[in-house]
Amino acid sequence: MQNIIERSIRIQASKAAIYAALTEADKLTQWFPSSVEGDLTPGSQPLFGFGEHGKSRVSIVAAEPHHYFAYRWVPGANHCEGDVSLVATTLVEFRISEAEGGFCEVKVTESGFNELPADIKADAFKQNNQGWDYMVNRLEQLFTEAA
Amino acid sequence: MQAQVFKAMGDPARLTLLSRLASGEGHTIGSLSENLGMSRQGARKQLQVLVAAELIELHKVGRETEVTINIGQLQQARAFIRELERQWDQRLSALKAFVEQTDPSSEADG
């Protein structure tokens, strides 16, 4: 399946420090949402605040010290305050691994775009499993053809 | 609206219609639906899905229906994934800046 965004960065810090920055509200709010209402523990649905950009409820899927943290949310939308288990979401996963020279690599993946929403998967992608990349490629082609 | 766009583009017949429009192979329902393996009525139905996603517009011109493509909306769909990637790059940079600035034990734990 090619319906994944994958980004990574190298950080000069310990796995524990990076993990804390992902899973402790007072640290998380220093770099990501500006506020967190609720617990950042698996099964919880805290509300991430993005200041004037609104709020987005996320559903914590897993928290495994000090290497893995995952949640589900509605991508690109900061206005989903309802029960996120009832709507189409993507899965965001953070993986922390040790790299050389006192660095750690943090890899973030966001996946599930071709399940957005369920009826896309049900009818549109029934005959085509390549999902997102397929569409993006088609778009590129359309623009090339149109040019 | 994004979801509608993706749904609209997730069908081979609709993609063919869009492709024909984009490459200038036709600009009426009649010319677009030639050799599409479906009736004119069927093509019209598929075009309505694209209309709902604001990917195209239909205009009645005499007895024909003219179809125009909304390139902006197509670019928006492509831009969506790029925007999400950009956002993650920004967030990871912010994470790096925050952690490296506040973790005094990084050398020891490294």
UniProtKB/TrEMBL annotation, chain A:
Domain Activator of Hsp90 ATPase homologue 1/2-like C-terminal: 13-143
Alphabetical list of SUPFAM superfamilies matching this protein: Bet v1-like
Pfam families: AHSA1
Domain of life: Bacteria
Taxonomic source organism: Marinicella sediminis
InterPro entries, per the entry: ASHA1/2-like_C (IPR013538), START-like_dom_sf (IPR023393)
Signal sequence region: none
Family recorded in the similarity comment: Belongs to the AHA1 family.
The name this protein goes by in its record: SRPBCC family protein
TrEMBL record, chain B:
Gene3D superfamilies per the UniProt record, alphabetical: Winged helix-like DNA-binding domain superfamily/Winged helix DNA-binding domain (1.10.10.10)
Pfam families: HTH_20
Top-rank taxon, per record: Bacteria
Annotated ranges, domain HTH arsR-type: 1-89
InterPro entries: ArsR-like_HTH (IPR011991), HTH_ArsR_DNA-bd_dom (IPR001845), WH-like_DNA-bd_sf (IPR036388), WH_DNA-bd_sf (IPR036390)
Signal peptide: none
Protein name from the UniProt record: ArsR/SmtB family transcription factor
Lineage: Bacteria, Pseudomonadati, Pseudomonadota, Gammaproteobacteria, Lysobacterales
